[in-house]
Model the fold of this input.
Amino acid sequence: MLILHLVAILAGLGMTLGTLASVVRTVIVPRATSSRLSALLATAVQGTLGLIAHTRRDFLRRDAILAQGAPLFLVLRLVVWIGLLVAGYALLLWGTGTPDFAGALRLSTSSILPLGLTHAHSGLETAIAFLESASGVIVVALQISYLPSLYSSFNRREALVTMLSSSSGSPPWGPEILARHALIDNQEHLADLYHDWEQWAADLTESHTSYSTLLYFRSPDPRTSWVLAVLACMDAAAMQLALNPLTAPASARPFLRMGIVCLRSLAAVTQVPYTNDPLPDDPIALTYEEFQEAVDRLLAVGWMPERTVAEAWPHFRGWRVNYEALAYRIANLIDAPPGPWSGPRRGRLEASMVPVRPPHRAPTPERERVLKVTRRRQEYRARGSSSGVAPAPPTNGSDAPADSDGGSPRQASGQGGG
Done:
């Protein structure tokens, strides 16, 4: 009997200390540390919901099921932590002198929060019950304080993802980002976009590696996702560098490098395999024909490339080979929406969703005027980039610059609906 009580004490100590270590590693340590308990529970929750969701062909229905995964995991993890502490302290109470295990379990259950329904009968029981009460209060308090940090990181992530919807539609797609900027002749804004997304990728790397639960929090809009958003922006930057190496923004390259670092860090946390140093001419899943269709989409809205499709393809592939497999595997892992250029998904799904561009609603005379001004600006920039010197600003037959064309800046920037 003494050996049995000794085993109970050791098992209780191991269960209690292991649970507290899981709490500390998950909630307190601000770095990419893994808790086996959290990982097993996350696998169980995501796996169960995934089996249910993957029977749905409509992604919107599938997303409604998967959206419950992360909140459910947080609640279940707290319940499991409390349950393990109750069981561990019950073993300690029984092993140190409580007459029967049922009585030890009642005292442990009463002490965890502390309810005071059952009282200790000895000094040792009182000490163990006090430690259990402190442990329970600390675990609940840490979980409560953990949630604001979690949702603060989620809100920072989704703010920029939501802003991208106006530039790319839902789901986000790299060629559409460039096309909508070309439609309103606003390519200069792409420099700021890449700069903002470089900072976003750095923040995502820090927050989502420290709190990996955030990876499974889905966007409010079921047609978008953080991984599709960063993939779309990286594709836009890679396409612009490949098609327009002379005029592409300087912020495109730092953003692409930060995006690659971000995806690799998240792959390390989720144990997604990847090639650390791929060659520029390694094959990618995206085909040359798909790239050519995307370039044709840009040419149709007035994009002025500096390279042909055949010349740009090796450069685009050289960028994309660094992040395509990573993005595809992470998107498949979290069941992101089936957007274009984002890889396959598990289960039965309908065809990939393509962002729909809103139609232009300006009156026909005003539309023709804005298009005329846009073409003049493009020709003006093209002459400047080809000659290396800034040409004289074109005019519209008066002393006013051609950019104004007698209209307001609001009118000149409203064309395209992008």
